[in-house]
Amino acid sequence: MITRISRFLSQRAVASGEVERGIFACGSGVGASVAANKVGGARAALCHDDFSARQGVEDDAMNILCFGGRTMGIAVAWDCAKNFLGAKFSGAERHRRRLAKVTQLEGGTIAYASDPK
After folding, report:
1. What does the DSSP 8-state code read for residue 116?
2. Residue 67: helix, strand or coil by DSSP?
3. Whose CA, among 4, 78, 101, 114, lies 20 to 30 Å from 108?
């Protein structure tokens, strides 16, 4: 129970900007990423390699790294964490547009092609 509460509070802290980034792990990493992405402002991804951990920040402004304690070794997890924490959002126009679309999705303001509005 304490782990779930602390994870929820940590997700809220990242999403609100109180802390810049978070790293969550569970058995597979799937549950941690699904739960984290339910918090508005959280952009969590399950990563299994250092490229994805870095690229997720640079291109998608990922702010929560998730991985599985049962699916990845310590050395790979360490490399992912270092790349995630060392990366910076690129700010490229196409990445800013993508982030704006994600923000619209969170707010429920994006129109879909099949939406009659």
Report:
1. -
2. strand
3. 4
Distance between CA atoms of 87 and 84, rounded to whole angstroms?
Answer: 5
With the C-alpha atoms ordered 43, 14, 39, 93, is the resulting torsion angle positive or negative? negative
Q: Determine how many CB atoms are found less than 10 A away from the CB of residue 106.
A: 16
Comparing C-alpha atoms, which of 64, 80, 68 is closest to residue 23? 64
Task: Please answer whether residues 92 and 55 qualify as being in contact, where contact means their C-beta atoms are separated by less than 8 angstroms.
Answer: no
Surface-to-core class of residue 109, CB atoms within 10 Å of its CB (0-12 exposed, 13-18 middle, 19+ buried): exposed
Contacts of 20 (CB under 8 A, 6+ apart): 14, 63
Distances (CA, A) of 49 to 11, 30, 106: 22, 15, 27
Q: What is the pTM of this model?
A: 0.81
Active site residues: 26
- Bridge partners (DSSP) of residue 26 are 68
Summarised one tens digit per residue, pLDDT across range 16-73 is: 888 889 898 889 999 889 988 888 888 999 999 999 999 999 999 999 999 998 999 9
